[in-house]
Amino acid sequence: MERARPLTSRRRLLRGAALAAVPYALLPWPRAGAHVQAPDHPTAEWQPASAANYTRARRPAQYSIDLVIIHVTQTRYSQTLNVFRNPKKKVSAHYVVRSGDGHVAQCVREADVAWHAGDWEHNTRSIGIEHEGWVDEPGYFTGALYGRSAALTAAICARHGIPTDRRHIIGHHEVPGTDHTDPGPHWDWERYMTLVEAAM
Ligand SMILES: [Zn+2]
Fold first, then answer.
1. What is the pLDDT of residue 1?
2. Domain extents in the chain
């Protein structure tokens, strides 16, 4: 998890001010009221983040998506959802996977830019998946968590044409310039990638 400042915040304000004057058909954004509040991943539970914690977008038309970024929450599942709902936190991810049963919550639409990678470029080109646990507590990385997350990643890769390899499915620590270490040394990449392949 990490806050990231979007470069478009001022433009978003201006866009809001312009809504009254510009016909909706001319706007490249969906109307707020028309934004579909339903998960992209059919089995995910919709648990929306505060609109203050991500950037509304039209991906992949607006930004192409070629990365899945794997995170570990460093807090409980329920607390992660609370953080994403809190407009002061300025952080979000598209999905959160619960440790005990692999339950998947979707908090941000895949079309929108979640703030999880730590820099704007990586946020715009990625889908972020948080996993309940701590980098130094491997017991949280259950079979259910690996299995449900791998199925989610496989579905994301299929939807967006992302290759299922380690150049395109990366850990937060592999984002250039980050000081984050998640998912950490106990995350079993070999197991995870095998599960992703099996789910394709
Ligand atoms: Zn992270």
1. 61
2. 37-199
Residue 175 CA, ligand 1 centroid: distance in Å = 10
Q: How far is the CA of 75 from the centre of ligand 1 (A)?
A: 12
**SS3 labels along 125-159:** CEEEEEECEECCEHHHCCHHHHHHHHHHHHHHHHH
Which residues are placed with Cβ below 5 angstroms of ligand 1, an ion? 71, 172, 180, 182
- Cα 51 to middle of ligand 1, angstroms: 20
CATH topology of domain 37-199: Lysozyme-like (3.40.80)
Q: Tell me if residue 115 falls in helix, strand or coil.
A: coil
- Catalytic one of 45, 130, 174, 197: 130
pLDDT, tens digit, 9 for 90 and up, residues 39-96: 999 999 999 999 999 999 999 999 999 999 999 999 999 999 999 999 999 999 999 9
- pLDDT tier, 10 (very low <50, low <70, confident <90, very high otherwise): very low
Span from the CA of 161 to the centroid of ligand 1 (angstroms): 23
Task: Say if residues 189 and 166 touch (Cβ distance below 8 Å).
Answer: yes
45 in active site:
no
